[in-house]
Amino acid sequence: MTRASLDKKPADVAAMFDGTAERYDLLNTLMTGGRDRSWRRAVVRALDARPGERVLDLAAGTGTSSVPFAEAGASTVACDFSLGMLRVGVRRQAGTARLNFVAGDALRLPFADAAFDAVTISFGLRNVADTGRALRELRRVTRPGGRLLVCEVSHPPNPLLALGHKAHLRVGLPLLARVGSNPDSYRYLAESTLAWPDQAALARLLQDAGWDAVRWRDLTFGVAALHHATNPG
């Protein structure tokens, strides 16, 4: 089995997700106690995709997160660099109108400048080797005035909740991962979550990448967070 490390070499990360593609959505539900579903609903509401818009869902994996945008009438691209994930997604989402799957690297997106009205990435930004560069790439492909929504793991501001969350990541998540086809991948996910910047630090990274009107909202007491931003053009 392939296990990526925190240097996040693209080939290692892609191969790791290839190895867990078939059960990825199930394991996400197990490891979050079902909260991932409510988080994804929050993303859909916050992005507010509209008929006729062009939406990029980066790190879309099997496309589960992309379907609601297409169903809202937006022309949606589900982009990921794991071919294993994309193959599963193409099969599972067959027949979903306005949804296309494209293989692509977050650091070199295969799209023209200003190609999208809205871009989003859920639980994938922390798997990219260069966060700042990925945020600049997302801004490049977003039209002036277009919007960005990042849904990512985060850190509860309450000290007691933060302690319990860390215990879950260090002990509970590896136990749950035993039902997966690649347990090492979920050990990596725990490590990458613990190493990820908090809400304010991610907001600063967004601002440094040129995004404007940056704000965030905690989900589930800060276990995850939604960061909003606008491309000033």
From TrEMBL:
It catalyses: a 2-demethylmenaquinol + S-adenosyl-L-methionine = a menaquinol + S-adenosyl-L-homocysteine + H(+). One of its GO terms (biological process) is methylation. The keyword ATP-binding does not apply. It holds the Pfam family Ubie_methyltran. InterPro entries: SAM-dependent_MTases_sf, UbiE/COQ5_MeTrFase, UbiE/COQ5_MeTrFase_CS. It is an enzyme of class 2 (transferase). One of its GO terms (molecular function) is demethylmenaquinone methyltransferase activity. Pathway: Quinol/quinone metabolism; menaquinone biosynthesis; menaquinol from 1,4-dihydroxy-2-naphthoate: step 2/2. Keywords: Menaquinone biosynthesis, Methyltransferase, S-adenosyl-L-methionine, Transferase. S-adenosyl-L-methionine binds at T62, D80, D105, A106, S122. Its EC number is 2.1.1.163. Methyltransferase required for the conversion of demethylmenaquinol (DMKH2) to menaquinol (MKH2). Belongs to the class I-like SAM-binding methyltransferase superfamily. MenG/UbiE family. This is Demethylmenaquinone methyltransferase. The lineage of its organism: Bacteria, Bacillati, Actinomycetota, Actinomycetes, Streptosporangiales. The gene is menG.
